[in-house]
Amino acid sequence: MPIAVTDYHHVRITVRDIDASRAFYDSVFGFEVAYAWDPEADEETKKALWFLFGGVIYTFGGGLFGLRPVAPGQDTFDEDRTGLDHLSFGVETHQDLTDAIATLDTLGIAHGGIKSAGPGLAIVEFRDPDNIALEISGPAE
Hints:
Elements: E1 10-14, H1 18-29, E2 32-36, H2 43-48, E3 56-60, E4 63-68, E5 87-90, H3 94-107, E6 111-116, E7 121-127, E8 133-139
Parallel strand pairs: 1-4, 5-8
Antiparallel strand pairs: 2-3, 3-4, 6-7, 7-8
C-alpha cells in the first residue's frame, strides 16, 4: 500500500557559501526565516539547532526551504547527476511571472525569460550562486 502523503514538508539544498546563498535567496524571494544558525549563540542554543548545519531554514506557503552550507568550495551543481534536477516555485498569475522577470533584471540575475512549459503553464528559469537550476512556474497568458 502506498504511503498517503498530503504535501511536502521541506526541501533543503546543499550550498558552498551560506553568506552568498542567503543574500541571493533573501533578495530574490524574501522568505521569512524560521531558523538560522548564529555562530555567536551559546552552546545550548547551538545544540538545539544542530539540524541547521550552520545554515538557515525559511518558511513560506505550505512548507520549509533550507540552505545547508556543507558543500566543498570547488563543488558545483549538475542536474545531469543523480539527485536534484531543478526546484520550481509557484506563483498565482502570469503577471507574477512578469514581476519575477523585473525582480531578476533589477538584481542582475540572468534568466531565460517567460517560456511555455505545456498547455496553460509558463516558467522562468534561472540559477542560484551554486548553479542550482531554479524556476518560477505559473499560468500562461
